[in-house]
Automatic annotation (TrEMBL):
<feature type="compositionally biased region" description="Basic and acidic residues">
    <location>
        <begin position="387"/>
        <end position="396"/>
    </location>
</feature>
<feature type="transmembrane region" description="Helical">
    <location>
        <begin position="34"/>
        <end position="53"/>
    </location>
</feature>
<feature type="compositionally biased region" description="Acidic residues">
    <location>
        <begin position="220"/>
        <end position="234"/>
    </location>
</feature>
<feature type="region of interest" description="Disordered">
    <location>
        <begin position="322"/>
        <end position="434"/>
    </location>
</feature>
<keyword id="KW-0472">Membrane</keyword>
<keyword id="KW-1133">Transmembrane helix</keyword>
<feature type="transmembrane region" description="Helical">
    <location>
        <begin position="183"/>
        <end position="202"/>
    </location>
</feature>
<dbReference type="InterPro" id="IPR021460">
    <property type="entry name" value="DUF3112"/>
</dbReference>
<feature type="transmembrane region" description="Helical">
    <location>
        <begin position="252"/>
        <end position="272"/>
    </location>
</feature>
<feature type="transmembrane region" description="Helical">
    <location>
        <begin position="138"/>
        <end position="163"/>
    </location>
</feature>
<dbReference type="Pfam" id="PF11309">
    <property type="entry name" value="DUF3112"/>
</dbReference>
<feature type="region of interest" description="Disordered">
    <location>
        <begin position="206"/>
        <end position="240"/>
    </location>
</feature>
<feature type="compositionally biased region" description="Basic and acidic residues">
    <location>
        <begin position="415"/>
        <end position="434"/>
    </location>
</feature>
<feature type="transmembrane region" description="Helical">
    <location>
        <begin position="65"/>
        <end position="88"/>
    </location>
</feature>
<keyword id="KW-0812">Transmembrane</keyword>
<feature type="transmembrane region" description="Helical">
    <location>
        <begin position="284"/>
        <end position="306"/>
    </location>
</feature>
<feature type="transmembrane region" description="Helical">
    <location>
        <begin position="94"/>
        <end position="118"/>
    </location>
</feature>
């Protein structure tokens, strides 16, 4: 097969065919149609699976937007496959070539974003005080925002390069594309040092605590000090705020594995751009096999790895997490106010010797005189006893609890702690004094 544009004069008007070899070359019905059809089916299945998982989780109140991102990635890849199949049938249609190149370059950015956010979650799990710092959060947000800016740069320069023959403009556009490609390759590689460094630092701290504990046990401390050291070590190790299902080790391996694959693909693509060849003499790295393997094969592996291991469960965190402790304890709006109210009313509830339900009413359980301090053992407290403290105003609270109650009430307590007959005073016949 001759290279595209070989022996042919350039078209009289824009868009113009590039004069340098492109990764993958010019598609042809054979073998590109068959290869693209296989990838098309795989991406359609991936899109349907992830959208189904998202909808099922949404109905269950399980929010996980990364399933939607994988769905969007699959849709971009479906469009890229369709455009390449159409381009194979219409090789002289440069507009279709532009669309195919844009969808091919844009889709993988979503995978970069997913891995970067997963790396951030792992950092926050191992080192909550560091991961939730504002400056660290801003760095990650800048990385995410830069992806959108680079996407705009790539689309603009790619489209414009097809509509100009000015060599100076094309040279500047190529520099922009090289910068954007290098930046994205670094971004794809970034989760590797983040996650790897986080795990190594956590292991270093754990080993340091073990060494300190070993030193204290050999300095002649008693057994009580050893027990305290063990408790402190367990408390320190429990500071890892685990999230989702499965072990943290599995999460780390998943992010490292997928990031290594994505970095390999991004590095290969930018390396090809740094080694331009004329369109009539492409290099081995422009071959179709390299194009499909370093693009779509890698992405299929990442897509189905996350889907099969149910990353929607493994990497899920409580919705609204914004501070240390939220990964483990969850996010409960107004929980602090509720705790203060519970603490302030604890004394009043103990005065009545009864626990209240979630609606504030008495549960009506049998209470123990040891807890209430004013009610005989086995006496049942009803909600009417807690309506107002005035019903207890006739009792002398300074006296013994049993003696004080015997002055105002004549009650015959039978077996099982229940009163026999109507032995309660006439003024409160339907009530049992609390």
């Amino acid at each position: 097969m001759s290279a595209p544009g070989a022996g042919q004069a350039p078209p009289s008007g824009p868009p113009y065919l590039p004069q340098v070899a492109q990764l993958g070359g010019l598609p042809t019905p054979l073998p590109d149609d068959a290869i693209c059809a296989v990838f098309l089916a795989l991406f359609v299945a991936g899109a349907a699976t992830n959208m189904t998982i998202f909808q099922v989780n949404r109905r269950r109140g399980h929010k996980f937007v990364f399933s939607v991102l994988l769905f969007g990635f699959c849709m971009a890849r479906i469009m890229a496959m369709v455009m390449r199949i159409v381009w194979a049938s219409r090789p002289t249609n440069i507009s279709i070539a532009i669309a195919a190149n844009i969808f091919t370059a844009a889709g993988v950015l979503l995978l970069f974003v997913i891995n970067l956010l997963f790396a951030q979650r792992i950092l926050r799990a191992y080192f909550p005080r560091v991961g939730w710092r504002r400056d660290v959060t801003l760095v990650f947000r800048f990385g995410l925002a830069s992806v959108a800016a680079l996407l705009v740069m790539l689309i603009t320069t790619t489209v414009h390069s097809f509509f100009t023959l000015d060599m100076s403009a094309r040279d500047k556009e190529r520099k922009v594309q090289l910068f954007a490609g290098t930046y994205l390759a670094v971004l794809a590689f970034l989760p590797l040092p983040i996650v790897g460094g986080t795990v190594l630092a956590a292991r270093h701290q754990r080993n340091k605590r073990r060494q300190q504990r070993g030193a204290t046990t050999t300095d002649g401390y008693d057994d009580d000090d050893d027990d305290d050291d063990d408790d402190d070590d367990e408390h320190s190790s429990s500071k890892i705020e685990k999230f989702g299902t499965g072990s943290m080790k599995t999460k780390v391996i998943l992010v490292l594995f997928t990031s290594a694959l994505l970095a390999l693909g991004a590095g290969f693509r930018v390396g090809v751009n740094f080694s331009p060849r004329p369109i009539t003499n492409p290099g081995w790295y422009h071959h179709k096999a390299c194009y499909y393997c370093f693009n779509f094969v890698i992405e299929i592996i990442v897509l189905y790895t996350y889907t099969i291991v149910r990353f929607d469960r493994r990497f899920h965190v409580p919705d609204g997490s914004s501070a240390p402790g939220h990964y483990v304890n969850g996010v409960a709006p107004g929980a602090g106010d509720d705790i203060d109210q519970d603490q302030s009313s604890a004394g009043e509830e103990k005065l009545g010797g009864v626990s209240r339900g979630s609606n504030g009413e008495a549960d009506g359980d049998i209470v123990d005189s040891g807890e209430a301090g004013m009610v005989p053992h086995g006496t049942k407290i009803t909600s009417m006893d807690l309506e107002t403290p005035k019903k207890l105003s006739g009792l002398d609270r300074e006296e013994d609890s049993m003696g004080g109650l015997n002055k105002g009430v004549n009650m015959d307590i039978g077996e099982g702690g229940r009163p026999r007959g109507d032995s309660v005073g006439s003024t409160e016949k339907d009530e049992v004094v609390g």
